[in-house]
């Protein structure tokens, strides 16, 4: 019995040790996943400049593209095999092969003509994206008008800085909508569930708290971070460390972890998306998707991002420690540890991105063959997350500001996620497919006898009210005005 207790304690200690190692790795990977390719390249170069234990890998194998067949996805394969999990292991962080930056199972691609930065038109503005999300909510006609006004009242950071009372007064004066404080507050809460997470908050404090509430509850400092930002935000932003430790009964190490967690949040949820319509944006493809042999070849495009590895000179120094003071040894050990963590996070970023992209293509094969958006199937970030056994927030990070080079052009991944509803025949229908079909019917109508909303509803198998809603969103006038 005593031996069993000892074994149980040893097992628990090993689990705790592994968790302590993996939590920093998970946080580092999540931070890197949310970066665009340009931001990721800049981050890699900053790390190379600031950590001497991290160096560029100039070996011949660094730039070898994946061999033919790597990354091939046939019609019957998904992101992961059944029962397989995408989990971290301690070896991902601490092993002798930590410098395997581009392992064989991560096909990468480099072709200056295919991976170069190019300028494209922004397809969906910040405000349009929010309106599309609002359209997928089951709002009443009055709530739709309130939501439309709230979205139009957001500032460039994505915050709703006006009070509920001011919003009520403005809506009544400028939009003819009489709404109570409670009615507006209810719609504000719905707005705050939209992406990007943190949008619709009244200020930075509330936005950060909303984002924290969307983080996995298993995070060891999430709840403490929420408590500190809720009751001690002034002390937090002014970095009154001692006062925060005393007030919230925590040590400095825990407080540092809180600051590290909050630093990875988005202080301007509308900033990355708040672009005017048709603004030209420079982007580089993150993935190359090619149809071949009845399936798809999917590779990561690393562009001009430097390959990195942990310096063997520094690791040898840590091993020997000869001729160095205790302070020097500790400094080098810390630098090597940070370099190992960074290389592991980069490698895990590659794996997660490729798994996610393979799953997206697996769920949308018809679209990636034809490039016709009407062929998109209903798909949410949770659908992808369930297949790759990760949190939806991880998938959100992968698709945010990421692009795929396809035979029919450059495609923003975020545009592939679609909402659906059940029509009057009980069938699941994609909203965008309905709008495309509606546009087609109206474009081909007899100008002398335009098709009415009732006729559209009958042909599309949806409610007349839904037809009217979509028609307004598409800025199409009623039938009598289309003669």
Which structural category do the helix and sheet elements fall into?
alpha+beta
Radius of gyration: 26 Å
Shape, principal axes of CA atoms: flat
| Secondary structure: number of strands | 12
Instruction: Please report the number of helical segments.
Output: 21
Q: Helical content, roughly?
A: 40-55%
Number of domains: 3
Instruction: Give the distance, in angstroms, between the N- and C-terminal Cα atoms.
Output: 88 Å
Strand residues, percent:
5-15%
The chain-level mean pLDDT equals: 76
Which segments are poorly predicted (pLDDT under 50) over 5 or more consecutive residues?
15-21, 61-70, 75-123, 274-281
Biggest beta sheet attributes: 6 strands, mixed
Summarize the structure in words.
The chain is of the alpha+beta class. It folds into 3 domains: 2-35 and 68-85 and 100-117 and 284-307 and 343-412, no CATH class; 126-263, no CATH class; 420-481, Arc Repressor Mutant, subunit A (Orthogonal Bundle), CATH 1.10.10. It is built from 21 helices and 12 strands. Strands 2, 3, 6, 7, 9 and 10 form a 6-stranded mixed beta sheet that branches. The protein has a two-stranded antiparallel sheet with strand order 1-8. Helix 20 (453-460) crosses helix 21. The chain is flat. Mean pLDDT is 76; it is low at 15-21, 61-70, 75-123 and 274-281.
């Amino acid at each position: 019995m005593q031996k069993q207790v000892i074994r149980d304690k040893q097992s628990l200690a090993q689990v705790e040790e592994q968790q302590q190692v993996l939590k920093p790795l998970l946080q580092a990977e999540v931070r890197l996943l949310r970066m665009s390719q340009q931001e990721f390249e800049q981050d890699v170069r900053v790390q190379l400049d600031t950590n001497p234990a991290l160096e560029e890998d100039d070996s011949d194998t660094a730039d070898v593209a994946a061999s033919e067949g790597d990354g091939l996805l046939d019609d019957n394969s998904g992101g992961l095999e059944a029962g397989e999990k995408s989990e971290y292991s301690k070896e991902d962080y601490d092993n002798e092969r930590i410098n395997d930056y581009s392992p064989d199972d991560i096909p990468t691609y480099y072709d200056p003509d295919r991976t170069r930065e190019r300028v494209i038109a922004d397809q969906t503005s910040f405000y349009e994206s929010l309106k599309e999300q609002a359209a997928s909510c089951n709002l009443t006609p009055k709530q739709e008008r309130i939501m439309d006004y709230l979205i139009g009242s957001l500032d460039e950071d994505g915050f709703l800085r006006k009070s509920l009372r001011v919003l009520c007064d403005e809506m009544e004066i400028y939009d003819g909508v009489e709404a109570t404080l409670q009615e507006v507050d209810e719609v504000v809460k719905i707005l705050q569930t939209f992406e990007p997470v943190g949008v619709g908050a009244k200020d930075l404090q509330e936005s950060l708290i909303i984002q924290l509430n969307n983080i996995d509850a298993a995070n060891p400092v999430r709840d403490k971070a929420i408590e500190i930002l809720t009751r001690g935000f002034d002390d937090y932003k002014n970095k009154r460390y001692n006062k925060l430790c005393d007030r919230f009964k925590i040590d400095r190490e825990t407080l540092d972890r809180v600051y590290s967690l909050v630093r990875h949040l988005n202080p301007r949820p509308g900033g990355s998306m708040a672009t005017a319509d048709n603004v030209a944006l420079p982007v580089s493809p993150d993935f190359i998707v090619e149809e071949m042999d009845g399936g798809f070849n999917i590779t990561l495009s690393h562009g001009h991002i430097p390959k990195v590895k942990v310096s063997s000179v520094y690791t040898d120094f840590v091993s020997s420690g000869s001729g160095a003071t205790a302070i020097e040894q500790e400094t080098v050990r810390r630098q090597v540890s940070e370099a190992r963590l960074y290389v592991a996070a980069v490698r895990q970023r590659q794996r997660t991105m490729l798994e996610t992209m393979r799953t997206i293509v697996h769920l949308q094969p018809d679209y990636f063959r034809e490039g016709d958006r009407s062929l998109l199937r209903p798909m949410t970030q949770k659908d992808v997350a369930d297949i790759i056994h990760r949190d939806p927030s991880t998938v959100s990070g992968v698709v945010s500001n990421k692009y795929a080079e396809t035979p029919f052009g450059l495609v923003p991944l975020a545009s592939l996620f679609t909402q659906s509803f059940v029509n009057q025949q009980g069938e699941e229908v994609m909203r965008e497919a309905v709008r495309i079909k509606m546009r087609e019917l109206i474009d081909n109508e007899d100008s002398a006898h335009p098709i009415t909303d009732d006729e559209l509803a009958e042909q599309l198998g949806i409610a007349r009210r839904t037809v009217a809603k979509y028609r307004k969103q598409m800025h199409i006038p009623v039938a009598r005005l289309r003669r």
